[in-house]
Amino acid sequence: AGSEGRKLKGPMAPPPRKEGRLSSETFNVSIAERKTVCPAGQASTNCSRLQEQKTGRVAYRFEWTRAQCDKCALRSRCLGKGQRHRTLQVGEHYEIIQARRLEQKKEAFQTDMQHRNGIEGTISELMRAHGMRRCRYRGLAKACLQNLMIGAACNIKRWCRRKIWEQQQPTDSMGSAALGAFAV
């Protein structure tokens, strides 16, 4: 995304967790060096590059030896039942994803997301209630016109709802409706 001049804006899902086990974010992963250090300070001994034939998706599997895991103080929190040594599999973009997870914990990210959260409901309404996901016509000009008409219809519907809401509000001594939740 960065090489194409785009900036990633959305939140990143937390890493998958297995009950009672240390998650991948507790490990210090370096894909470039093909090394990982576990929370106990043990460096991985093996790294395999895995590529799915159907999708071309690349992942890296890091492994520790049984001898390293046998003497580890964190063994009970790190290994599952019947597991002899730890393995960790991460995608090729793991480091970028981890940086994003750390960034989204900052207050600046939360403030920036308020703008995105505000538009999410509108986009959802346009898709679900007005059929904006599919275009009825061929050609960019007709598709653009359809989207403009859908936006206008949504705005008219919202304006009508607002007017109905204003009429239902009690009036004060000056005869104006209270603004309530829509206070400016």
Please give a structural write-up.
It is a single chain. Strand 3 (46-51) and strand 4 (58-63) form a beta hairpin. The protein has 184 residues and is an alpha+beta fold. The longest helix has 29 residues, at 140-168. The chain is elongated and about 80 Å long. The chain starts with 27 loop residues before the first strand and ends in a 16-residue tail after the last helix. Helices cover 39% and strands 12% of the residues.
Overview features:
184 residues, two-stranded antiparallel ribbon, alpha+beta, 39% helix, 5 helices, single chain, 3-stranded antiparallel β-sheet
Brief synopsis:
The protein is built from 5 helices and 5 strands; from the N terminus they run E-E-E-E-H-H-E-H-H-H. The chain is of the alpha+beta class and 184 residues long.
Ends distance:
38 Å
SSE-based structural type: alpha+beta
How large, in whole angstroms, is the Cα Rg? Answer: 26 Å
Q: Kindly state the number of beta strands.
A: 5
* Percent of residues in beta strands: 5-15%
Biggest sheet, open or closed, and with what strands and sense?
3 strands, antiparallel
Please bin the fraction of helical residues: 25-40%
Instruction: Please report the number of helical segments.
Output: 5
Order of helices and strands: EEEEHHEHHH
Question: What is the overall silhouette?
Answer: elongated
Q: Stretches where pLDDT falls below 50 for ≥5 residues?
A: none
Report the average pLDDT across residues.
85
Strand order of the main beta sheet, please?
3-4-5
